[in-house]
Write a structure and sequence with these properties.
Elements (H helix, E strand, L loop, with lengths): L1 H21 L10 E7 L7 E4 L4 H6 L4 E8 L4 H7 L3 E8 L2 E7 L6 E3 L2 E3 L1 E5 L4 E5 L7
Antiparallel strand pairs: 1-2, 1-3, 3-9, 4-5, 5-8, 6-7, 8-9
Length: 139
């Protein structure tokens, strides 16, 4: 009986430690699909990790996350910018895609032409992709 109590106490302690370690590891974007994490120390050594299914669960097991992105079928950009405390710094359009480079209350950032950018929104024909600090790879 004493062994069972000791085992349950040890298991409970381990679960509490795991929960405390995992709590700060949340995702930046809710409600998106095709969630991607970028892991590494910079874009030069960036490893792409696709979250198949549950992005929050995938995030718990990742280290050295240096960015994230998610895709949306529809997104009210003005409302989204308000939700992340963001504002558009500059935009560009090419090949039917409009890109908005923004500053926002997000944890990752890069400097583009001396300006800190930490939110990238790509508006495509059939979807909108958001990324922090920017969308690495294709969109």
């Amino acid at each position: 009986m004493r062994f069972i109590k000791l085992s349950l106490t040890a298991l409970s302690a381990a679960l509490i430690i795991f929960a405390i370690a995992a709590l700060p590891k949340s995702v930046c974007f809710n409600g998106g699909y095709n969630y991607v994490f970028y892991c590494g120390t910079s874009s030069a050594d960036c490893r792409v990790v696709r979250a198949d299914g549950n992005a929050k669960l995938t995030r718990i097991f990742l280290n050295n996350v240096c960015g994230e992105s998610a895709e949306f079928k529809e997104l009210d950009i003005e409302k989204f910018l308000l939700s992340v405390g963001g504002e558009i710094v500059f935009s560009e359009s090419a090949a039917g895609i409009t890109n908005y480079y923004c500053s926002a209350n997000l944890p990752y950032s890069v400097a583009i032409d001396g300006t800190e950018i930490n939110l990238h929104i790509a508006v495509c024909e059939n979807s909108i992709k958001v990324g922090t600090p920017i969308i690495f790879g294709g969109y």
